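so ive been stuck on this for like two days lol. basically i have the seq below and the ligand is magnesium ion, smiles is in there too. i just want the complex predicted, nothing fancy, no docking runs or whatever. if the output looks off dont worry ill sanity check it later, just need somthing to start from for the group meeting slides
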Amino acid sequence: MLNPKQIDFMLADDKVINLLTGSVRSGKTYVSLLKWAIFVASMPINSEFLMTGKTITSLKRNCLGLLQDLVGKNFTYSTSQKMGVLFGRKVWLEGANDERAESKIRGMTLAGAYVDELTQIPFEFYSMLLSRLSVKGAKLYATTNPDSPTHWVKELIIDNDEIEKAIWNFSFDDNEILKRENEDYFNNLKQQYQSMGGVFYERFILGLWVMAEGIIYKQFANNPEMFIRDEAVDKNGNKLNFLIVSIGIDYGATRGQTTFKATGITPYFKEVWCLDEVNLEGLYTPEEIYEEFDKFYYKIVKEYGKCTHAWGDWGSLGEVLSFGLNRHLQQKGIPLKIENCIKLQINDRIYLDCYLFANSRMFILRKCEYLINSYKQAVWDEKHEDCRLDDGSFDVDSLDAHEYSISAWYDKLMTNINPF
Ligand SMILES: Nc1ncnc2c1ncn2[C@@H]1O[C@H](COP(=O)(O)OP(=O)(O)O)[C@@H](O)[C@H]1O
Ligand SMILES: [Mg+2]
């Protein structure tokens, strides 16, 4: 049994690109998998297909089990072999969570592709995927929840009149069957999103492609995976060579959380890479902070071959701690001097980071969890114009320390000269 909206979708003629967008739990995945299975079965027996999601794990969680529920033994798969068989046809399974994933599908000749959570997939991967759909009659099926109105899925697919596509909008109320069977569940879900705040409700319940008001690093917050990397490597997988490897220190005197952020800057001040971090939660003696800094310094030098600069917060007890830390480094024979950081105005710092993100010039390694969370959570302080909220509701210290690590090169980083 299908919902009326799902029946419409099943009966419609497919285009090359078939995208189902809209609210959570609206029946997009269910019906798209059903149509996908029928489509695959209709293609020549020797053709090959791809199913992809952010990771194989999420693909399995969202789709593979459900597909088995729908077609029974006609679908078998192995995630370790990244392969499945659907109605006798070979289906490759692949995660698309980093840009190098694109190379995994480069040589394929596909008769069809299914994409779970399209907005979570890098554009490079998507465009490579489209180019692999070279078999006659090949089609793409994808589902997604809405994202920001500037997301590539919105701009380059939904709003693009030049391509052959069918866009289906599913709303929260379209899943009539589930709603009838489980009204309470639906009401709870709605309430949950409502309490999370405007943007979540608007996107995941109303199914709208809206901006996250109040979020500072909108681009990052709307699509963090665009800026998160697993390793500091270039497009060809070669280890990056940094001109500068700089540590920013926020002693967090008021809230008792000292944090170090290591940042690499590539030659010509082209890219900024947030490489590593230490967050010391709770109380530490100055000596303990110095020891932790030592360890971090050696770790960075070991991994990146150098640590060229370090910048400490000053004001309140910052200078005292940097003074002590410098004496400690001297005694240990570590050739590094903590300088007083350059304190740019908050909105200049924010502008710098947003500018770097906007130009795809700043990346964060996945292990920098504190920093990543701070970038996701930072919001403007509504009571003060052009001011970042600093009421302890999220970790501002991580942003400060990162900013100290690069502020000295503000002008060079802002200069829009591409030396290549
Ligand atoms: N026609 C249907 N009959 C029975 N259950 C359905 C039907 N359509 C969707 N569901 C169930 O409703 C839930 C939400 O559907 P799903 O396709 O996962 O939504 P979405 O992908 O839009 O978030 C799932 O548990 C799914 O199995
Ligand atoms: Mg879904």
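Residues 310 and 394 are 24 Å apart (CA to CA). The chain has two domains: 4-196, 224-414.
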